[in-house]
Amino acid sequence: MARKQNVVRMHHGLNLNIGIVIFVIIIIYVIFNLISYLTSSPVAEYEVGQGTIATNHVYHGLILRDETVVYAGQSGYINYYLKNGAKASVNDVVYSIDTSGELSRQISDVASNGDTLDTETLNEVSSELDVFRNSYDSNTFSSVYTFKNELNAQLTQTLSMNALSSLNEDVKAAVENNTFYKKKSEKPGIIVYYTDGYESVTTDNFTSGQFNMADYKRNSLDDQEQVTANTPAYKRIDSEKWNILLPVSEDMAEQLKDNEYIKIRFCKDDFTLTVPYSLTKKDGSYYVNLSLKTAMIRYVNDRFVDVELVVSEKTGLKIPNSAITKKQFYTVPKEYFTQGGDSSVPGLMIENHAGDTGSVTLVQPTIYYETDDFYYIDDETVSAGDVVVKNNSSGTYTIGSDVDKLTGVYNINKGYAVFKQIDILTQNNKYTIVDTGTSYGVALYDHIALDGSKIKENQLVVK
């Protein structure tokens, strides 16, 4: 008879495969990040670059020049032969007077025929058209009319000069009969065809009332057909030197008093110059007197001009104002920080709670900013009420006793938000210039959140 065998079943514990465990953890991590990605709003970013912001002030300036009004010697019909703003040499014919009107009418008739324009003139006009087309800005459409009027005057006066030459025999006869007079420039200068009563105003005799545009009147000369003796025929500007007077506040005058040169920008065409200046006080008001030696002909038709004074320029890292936010931090005295373990990073010894009396835990909080006496830390590794033990001392400090706010931006280089402190140098209504090389701060080419008000520390960023 066979022996009966007793089989004893052994109960084994749960046998886990480490590979499966790791796989499950990875799946959970991927699902968590996927959910975070799908439920998060995309964050617009901005790459920090180098930039400059100027602190500027715009003033309405009065232009003063060395101007001479030239009066007509006779009464009669007038024709002009130089364009407005042209440079005249001594003995260049500027205009003519015809007392009878007959020769003046012939000159006008011949001048109306564009066939008399030579190749050189046509090439010059073509070149001017190309320059205007390449520099045209649709935001200043009025410049089209200004250019049209200037070009029309140039062509009219060129044609008039050609007509004067073609009618040489008639001109000669009229001159002998004392009915036609060719008027030449007695001095070299720039010819303009308007008067406004400011020709004798200087930097010494000006008045505050002369800055009032409401009282300004301008008399155009080149559109007149007839003149009376001893009335203005044209105006000659005798020097390239000119001045612009700007009325400024006492505070601005105080700010400018220690300098000799300033950078200016003409608002009309964005032209910039660095020029010497002086300050003048008259009748209790302050004026900046800009002294210029170039570019006068650019504004020969202007008596008033808007000028921007570039008082100061700051260069640094340029960031949009929308990225700037504030965050509150604990400020902990530096004397309570210590170094421990294998790290040189400053840490804090936090006293453990009841039940483990006398023991401490070393934490190494992220430092966001420092002053001579304090480090700025957040609540990532400490909480308000935690007691910090001073190394080799009985002194303690309670977290939250001192707090302060820092101005900064959120760096998103690593896919999550990290607050970075900034040191503001200057700003306008759109951008801010911050100092470079700031400890714990933002750096060139960093990517920051464009809207700092919608970001929180350590927030995952969906770009």
From TrEMBL:
Pfam families: Beta-barrel_RND_rel, BSH_RND_rel. The chain crosses the membrane at residues 12-32. The keyword Transcription does not apply. It comes from the Bacteria. Residues 242-312 form the RND related beta-barrel domain. Residues 67-215 form the RND related barrel-sandwich hybrid domain. The keyword Transmembrane applies. Keywords: Membrane, Transmembrane, Transmembrane helix. InterPro entries: Beta-barrel_RND-rel (IPR058729), BSH_RND-rel (IPR058709). This is Membrane fusion protein.
